[in-house]
Amino acid sequence: MRTAAAPPRRPPCSQPLLRSTHRTAPPSSAVGAVPAPARPGSVRAAGIRAMLRPELAASYTELSEDVERVSENPTDEGEGEMGVDEDTSSAILPDSELGTSAPSLRFSKTCLKNVFSVILLFIYLLLMAVAVFLVYQTISDFREKLKHPVMSVSYKEVSLYDAPGIAFYPGKAQLLSCKHHYYDHILPLINPGQPGEIDCTTQRINYTDPFTNQTMKYALIVQGPRDVKKKELVFLQFHLNGTDQDFNAIDYLLFSSFQEFVNSPEKAEFMKDCESSYSSWKFSGGFRTWVKMSLVKTKEEDGRETVEFKQETSVVNYIDQRTKLRNDQLFFVVFEWKDPFIQTVQDIITANPWNTIALLCGIFLALFKAADFAKLSVKWMIKIRKRHLKRKSQVMNHIS
């Protein structure tokens, strides 16, 4: 078996010298002195420096990488790399770039972000305040609308009305004539003050006064006009003899349906209820009173429906051409429908609970969203502040 020849042994003192020959000598600008002639002590010092240079280069490289992350500027990265490549073993760092340009730029960006975040936070707080006010205002308006319903008026057009009932309280006066006319065509009176034709449906009834329950009242019930398109009207003539009153007038009352009065089994009670529910008016002697009626139906909160009449009256002086002594007073009255519209009045509550609930849901959603945005902004500001302080402390530690 062959034995390998052992490699030749080198002198022990030659190993540090060979290791130092493979390293690059530091630049003259960093050391600042001319290398001295080789001596035994200098050879040992050169070996020690050659061993320390990789550690210094690694520490400066880490410091340059930290500076590059803080500055986040590609130009500064290039300059830092060039500085490290040019002089790795040098102890001098680019303090001007690290302390002035990169931190100032970073500070300005951070300051702008913080100011912007504060502005956003105030905007969100303002939105939240507005939303809270809208919630309060919406609830207040809803409660106010519940307490004060709005009157709604609607009109229904008809061609025929239910014939109303006209209750006259003539007292001592006497009905002379009653006739239906059409198209506002009233013929001249032939014998004024004398009994004439009565072609109206009439009924007479006695009943006790609903307010005193003692006084008996006499009423003459006449069927009113019905056809509104033909302008149907009812013309009546009364006269009153030898009165001792200074002012002569006849009371009358309008109720909604003459047919209900005819079909009522208790006509006296029916008239008492009408007098309690409807208003009464007057027309005077010596004039022709023209009454134009309009019907108003009102729906109560409990579901009942009440009916009342609105009137427009015009009074025209009657020229009495009778030659005899006149101890009696003449009364003329005309009843006509004003228009073919029945007015319906009802109280409605304009506050819609579903609209209010939807509005409140939208407001609360905006509140929660604004609170979420504000929370995220605060967290972001805190995170940016901590990161800035951490990087600042790292840079100061590396510099120190």
From TrEMBL:
Residues 25-40 have a biased composition (Low complexity). The keyword Transport applies. Residues 1-40, 63-95 are annotated as: Disordered. Belongs to the proton-activated chloride channel family. It is found in: Cell membrane. This is Proton-activated chloride channel. Residues 74-88 have a biased composition (Acidic residues). One of its GO terms (molecular function) is pH-gated chloride channel activity. One of its GO terms (cellular component) is plasma membrane. InterPro entries: TMEM206 (IPR029366). It catalyses: chloride(in) = chloride(out). Pfam families: TMEM206. It comes from Coturnix japonica. Keywords: Cell membrane, Chloride, Chloride channel, Ion channel, Ion transport, Membrane, Transmembrane, Transmembrane helix, Transport. The chain crosses the membrane at residues 115-136. The keyword Ion transport applies. It is a multi-pass membrane protein.
